[in-house]
Design a protein that fits this description.
Elements: H1 3-19, H2 22-42, H3 45-78, H4 81-115, H5 122-151, E1 156-159, E2 164-167, H6 170-174, H7 177-208, H8 214-217, H9 221-266, H10 268-275, E3 287-293, E4 300-306, H11 309-315, H12 325-336, H13 354-381, H14 395-419, E5 424-426, E6 430-431, H15 442-473
Antiparallel strand pairs: 1-2, 3-4, 5-6
Amino acid sequence: MEVVDIARWQFGIITVYHFLFVPLTIGLTLIIAIFETAWLRTGRPEYLRLTKFFGKLFLINFALGLVTGIVQEFQFGMNWSDYSRFVGDVFGAPLAIEGLLAFFLESTFLGLWIFGWDKLPRALHAACMWIVHVGVLFSSWFILAANSWMQHPVGYTYNAENGRAELVDFWAVMVNKVQLVTFPHVVLAAYMTAGAFVIGISAWLYVHHRHGAADRTSTDPGVVETARTDRAMYRTAIRLGAVFMVVGGIGVAVSGDIQGKIMTEVQPMKMAAAEGLYETHESCAPFSILTVGTPDGREEKFALTVPCLLSYLGTGSFDGEVQGIDELRETYREEYGQDPGAAYYTPGEYVPNIPVTYWSFRFMMGLGAAGAVGGLVVLWLTRRRNDGATLPHWVGPVGIALPLALVAANSFGWIFTEMGRQPWVVFGLMTTERGVSPGVSVTEALISVIVLTVLYAVLAVVEVGLLAKFVKAGPEPFTEPPDPGSPDHDRDAPLTFAY
């Protein structure tokens, strides 16, 4: 095993693990802001209870995402120093702005939101979470701009003397055609994931929480009324989550369709690898839903295909031409030479791992589509406003399955995006093997991947344990929070931690 193998595994493990938290952070900030705004407008207690309940779960997720994100940045200096040196001048500006502007914005106003319940006017306090969401979107924009540059380098010049890419057009990097479609695709997928999370938690509480079945076992009118109120609250959350899933699903489908066409334009090998398409189809290239054959996809024994769909996904026309792997390999050999990465890659191949790209592409689309359909089903099940009506018991486990499916869809999407670009770490400019740190030994790399994997496993146990603890407790009973705008409010009272 070589250093580049270990470094790739470490980067993949840490990046995928970190991205488990990112979609929830993006989506929950918007959902919590909506809940608190609804409480301000209506005064209904359930909206404040949901705000604080999901706010607590969000803070757990945010803290773990912050920790894992910091470690991810350290990786560039540990195992990928040559890559960092090559892209540093280009990445310096967007990532510095992300840290100094976007992250500072979201962390500052998140702190105000946490500690400001009894200090800030209610409207200003709700505005803090909206600003946090804006900050999260800014962070996503700058980070995705850096990643999109790896997919489609623009706005740079190559300095042959120092062997580095140098930024010459910051705006070109910010409005990279890949970036313009990747950003809405990722953010809308995050909204779907957060919506599924809200559905899963609320549906489980609706069915299993101590108040959920209390009216069937108690004759106490107070207990029965509490159960009815809680069911109505969970139903409200479930429906909002379902709206996020359906609307987000439509947006993901539209942006994904555009993204596929841009991907075919700038990285045709990735689209060919996603289908395992070796021969060029001048028109009506089929898309296989399922293929049984050799692992590399060159020989198939059985295939369930949709005629001409790949042509449409790649070009927008059912008669569009889709280049095959063999033709593209020859084109890349002529353009880039015979040796894309020394010992690690077969000379002149320029072909990503076909099984990984083929299946990750399908799992991404299949799980995402299933999530959107699940959101529609949930909307139909909760269409009646009768709070006395109960949802079927199978809604609980199905609700828990929805966020797991969406988290998996997000992960498979990133696996496809990054693995489909191989053997390039920066497409057309630097191969993955040439980006690895030259001074790191196999032993050092192996120790670091083992230590970080074990550490992340411990963090996973902490995350699941904390979420399970607070989810089982459910939303706290309604307590009217202090109103800093009232004349009798004690403005000299010490600052309190809301959670």
